[in-house]
Every structure is written in structure tokens, then in C-alpha cells.
Amino acid sequence: MLKIDNMTMKFGGVVAANKFNANIEKGEIVGLIGPNGAGKTTIFNVVTGVYKPTEGDIIFSPNEEEQIITGLRPDEIAKLGICRTFQNIRLFKQLSVLDNVFIGNHLRIKSNVFSSILRLPTYRKEEKEMLEKSIYLLEKVDLKDEMDEKAYSLPYGKQRRLEIARALATEPKLLLLDEPAAGMNPQETRELMGFIKDIKEEFDLTIFLIEHHMEVVMGICDRILVLDHGTLIAEGDPEYVQNDQRVVEAYLGVE
Ligand SMILES: Nc1ncnc2c1ncn2[C@@H]1O[C@H](COP(=O)(O)OP(=O)(O)OP(=O)(O)O)[C@@H](O)[C@H]1O
Ligand SMILES: [Mg+2]
Q1: CA angle (147, 148, 154) in 5-degree steps
Q2: How far is 183 from 189, CA to CA, in rounded Å?
Q3: Which protein residues are within 6 Å of ligand 1, measured from CB?
Q4: CA–CA separation, 232 vs 4, rounded Å?
Q5: Is the Cα torsion angle 93, 94, 97, 101 positive or negative in sign?
Q6: CATH class of the 2-81+172-252 domain in this structure
Q7: Ligand 1 center from residue 51 Cα (angstroms)
Q8: Where in the chain is the domain with CATH 3.40.50.300?
């Protein structure tokens, strides 16, 4: 589904990602972990086109064909089927919960500008479908009762779920979640784990997720990549990674 090939991202003298390689298979949930500043979000930013890597390539294969997406714009990448959420939540805070999800549909609109301005029947039909889909997604993330509230009025955990619903509205094949459990209490975190597994099945997703909550990473990931100072230091299933000496040192330091 996704191949990150020998990718380096430098910001001036800072090497945020250093010859990083990853392969994510269709249907996997892959975790990306590592200490603060390790370069995790940078990898997501490169994959989603926020930054063009200094070196290396990003290859996306939602179907059989491989497509090099290095250097494409974020909207082009989203249209191909990669969507993300952000570490620092980015919602349209003054808009309603429903509108935030509704906006996610715009990538898939088929009607042209004229039919939407003139509100022709084709557009109205599509609009109605988008509305129904948005409400369905809100039901999925358990926010239907709050759909008319302003996004800013939601507590943190719900804002994170709303961001996921908006991402789902773009109909991604690959979903990138940057610390989805950040700011959630233990109960919300447990629910989130079940929820991520559910949406993966229902929407036939492949998921790449960054997370500091170890119970989430260890509980739902098929495979984990460990990053330290921009370099991949370990890769394997949860049990393997937890017992890897380099991983323990990266987190706890060397005595
Ligand atoms: N736009 C930028 N300009 C300059 N330096 C940047 C930029 N983005 C990231 N960096 C630097 O790259 C390094 C990796 O940052 P990144 O945000 O990717 O880490 P992270 O693993 O996501 O950390 P955290 O767990 O704290 O979110 C850091 O040293 C950071 O300061
Ligand atoms: Mg980060």
C-alpha cells in the first residue's frame, strides 16, 4: 500500500528523517513510535505532501499499480486516497460538528460548479447523499447527538474523533493518525482502540499511526516501527519491539 524508500528530510542542519524505509501492506495497522522529536510527524508530513523530502521517494499503491507520489500537493495526495489527522487538532472550530464532517466530502464531489451554483437536481441529490453519509460517520464516532454544536465546544477526546470522521469522509484507503489518543482519558483510550479496529474493517482501511500511549500501540498494531533521531532503530511485532534493547535505550536512555 505504502512504501517509503530511503527518505531523508532535512530542515537546515536538522536531519528529521534519515534514510528512512518502510513498507506498509494493505490491511495492516502499523505503529510508528519513538521519543519526542524523533521525526514521526515529519514522516507523516512527507507522506501527505506537506514537505517534499530532501531525498528518497514515497510510493503509493492502492491498487496493483505503483505510483510515485513524492512532491505531489497535499490535495492531490488526499484525492489518491491518503488522509490524516493532526497531532494538534485542526478543525473548523466555529463550524458545527456536522459541517466539519461534511467538508470532508468535497474531495469526492462529482457535480460541477454550475450545477452546484444553480442547485440543479443532480447537485441536490449528491448533497443529500453527502449529508446522509456525514451523519452516518458521526454515528460511527458516536457524535451524532452533538452534530449541531460548534466544534470548539466539544471536549478534547471528542474533537479527536470528529477529526477522524472528517478524514473518513474523504474516503481514504490509507489513514494516518498522529497521536489519536493524545489528551484522552483511559476510558476514551480504550474505546478508541476498539473504534480504530472497527473502522479499519468497515471501511477496508490500512492504518499507519503514531502514538505515545503504549497500550494503544501494543494493543492494536500488527507491526511497529521505532524511530530515534530520524533513524529506524527497530521493527517488528509488539512483543519483539518491547524487548528490543535499542528501543528500551531510546526511551529510557543508557546508564
Ligand atoms: N518545519 C520544520 N522546520 C524545522 N525543523 C523542523 C520542522 N518540522 C520538524 N522539525 C524538527 O524535526 C525534528 C523532528 O520533529 P517531529 O515533529 O517530526 O518529531 P516527532 O517525532 O513527531 O515528535 P513528537 O513526539 O514530539 O510529536 C525535530 O527536531 C523538529 O524540531
Ligand atoms: Mg509529532
Answers
A1: 70
A2: 9
A3: 11, 14, 16, 34, 36-42, 87
A4: 12
A5: negative
A6: alpha beta
A7: 12
A8: 2-81+172-252
Q: 114 falls in which pLDDT band (50, 70, 90)?
A: confident
Q: What is the pLDDT of residues 41-94, one digit of tens each?
A: 999 999 999 999 999 999 999 988 899 999 999 999 999 999 999 998 899 999
Half-sphere exposure (Cβ direction) of 189: Cα atoms closer than 13 Å: 16
44: cell is: 507523516
Centroid of ligand 2 to alpha carbon of 131 (angstroms): 33
Residues 6+ apart with CB under 8 A from 169: 101, 102, 103, 104, 105, 133, 134, 137
211 Cα to the center of ligand 2, angstroms:
9
- The ligand minimizing its distance to the Cα of 225 is 1
pTM: 0.93
